[in-house]
Q: What sequence folds into this?
């Protein structure tokens, strides 16, 4: 399993309606300190206004004023725990503000924090409780400067305001988290697609390696077998076969170096970079097969092979290469005909056929993967490939590829 797939399978530690900051943080950030200090000062300012109103009432005893100040200060200090225990702080401050007007500001901040850090259900329950007790505080400790109805309505509106504001902030944070999660998933999916494309490219390179090296190694096998079964051959023929073996081994190494160069990471040096085969180099392939002792006839009816698209020419070359390799394996000594025709707008066709060999032989083992790879290569190029035995026991490979006008 790759690193990307492992990260994709990791379960989320948060529930669907939770945010990353809902469970608190081990350490406050600079932003957390700024927000907490601002919330503390707002609650303290609200409490000071309430304390000034209470102090302006001449009927208020000094002991009650001192108690209000201490309770209000404790309520404001309790806000520092609102991130870790938002439900407990909100419930406690709501109960304290029932009889203590100075704690009303801290209670509103606690409700706002509850709406930001907790889902809707606990917010609805505690908010409903705060609305129920909103008229109780002005009933127990009425404000001389306002009526009971006005105090109750203002208290309920403030509770609704902070709860609504908190839920809006939470909804925005959820939206941001959702967008970030989608971005991460899109990035992960892109990485998975890139890895899949890389894997498919490596499979294509493996097929390329099979097509290239099978051709070279078959030449080595044929000539090595000739040297083995004809040790009394003339010196000139032995030298010629040895030269073909040497050249085929050299070409195989060059092809292998080319494929390995494709697998190198970007930025690495790539020595021995050889040009890709095209339709023009088809004559050289046929000459190489003839030098190995095959009887190959090439009928190239393309007026200007150099004008053929590079990808199409390379596909034709690989089809011919694999077909000649199979002919050497399964029909040694039989003549092989290669016909290429077509032009711009008409497409390009290649046909390789050979009759059955006249004499029995011991074929080189093969798995048939080469023809499968050729079919896939032709399909990827936008064409088609057919292959099969002939009635006389021979074999034919025929492909048609596009050539835009």
A:
């Amino acid at each position: 399993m790759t690193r990307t797939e492992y990260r994709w399978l990791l379960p989320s530690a948060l529930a669907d309606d939770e945010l990353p900051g809902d469970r608190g943080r081990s350490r406050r950030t600079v932003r957390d300190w700024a927000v907490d200090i601002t919330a503390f000062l707002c609650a303290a300012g609200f409490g000071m206004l309430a304390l000034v109103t209470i102090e302006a009432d001449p009927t208020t005893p000094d002991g009650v004023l001192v108690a209000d100040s201490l309770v209000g200060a404790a309520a404001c200090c309790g806000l520092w725990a609102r991130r870790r225990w938002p439900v407990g702080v909100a419930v406690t401050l709501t109960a304290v503000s029932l009889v203590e007007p100075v704690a009303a500001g801290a209670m509103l901040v606690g409700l706002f924090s509850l709406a930001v850090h907790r889902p809707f259900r606990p917010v609805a329950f505690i908010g409903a409780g705060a609305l129920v007790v909103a008229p109780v505080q002005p009933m127990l400790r009425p404000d001389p400067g306002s009526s009971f109805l006005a105090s109750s309505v203002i208290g309920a509106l403030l509770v609704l305001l902070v709860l609504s504001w908190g839920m809006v902030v939470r909804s925005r944070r959820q939206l941001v988290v959702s967008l970030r999660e989608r971005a991460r998933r899109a990035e992960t999916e892109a990485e998975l697609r890139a890895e899949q494309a890389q894997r498919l490219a490596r499979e294509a390179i493996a097929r390329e390696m099979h097509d290239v090296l099978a051709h070279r190694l078959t030449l080595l096998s044929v000539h090595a077998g000739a040297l083995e079964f004809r040790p009394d051959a003339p010196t000139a023929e032995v030298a010629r076969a040895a030269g073909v073996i040497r050249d085929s081994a050299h070409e195989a190494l060059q092809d292998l170096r080319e494929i390995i160069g494709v697998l190198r990471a970007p930025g690495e040096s790539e020595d021995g970079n050889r040009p890709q085969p095209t339709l023009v180099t088809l004559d050289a392939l046929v000459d190489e097969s003839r030098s190995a002792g095959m009887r190959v006839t090439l009928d190239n009816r393309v007026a200007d092979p150099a004008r053929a698209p590079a990808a199409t020419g390379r596909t034709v070359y690989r089809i011919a290469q694999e077909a000649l390799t199979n002919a050497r394996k399964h029909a040694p000594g039989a003549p092989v005909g290669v016909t290429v025709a077509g032009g711009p707008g008409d497409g390009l066709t290649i046909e390789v056929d050979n009759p059955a060999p006249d004499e029995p032989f011991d074929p080189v083992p093969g798995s048939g993967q080469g023809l499968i790879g050729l079919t896939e290569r032709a399909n990827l190029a936008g064409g088609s490939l057919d292959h099969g035995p002939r009635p006389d026991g021979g074999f034919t490979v025929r492909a048609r590829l596009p050539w835009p006008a």
Observations:
- Residues 17 and 179 are 15 Å apart (CA to CA).
- The longest helix spans residues 148-229.
- The chain is about 60% helix and 10% strand.
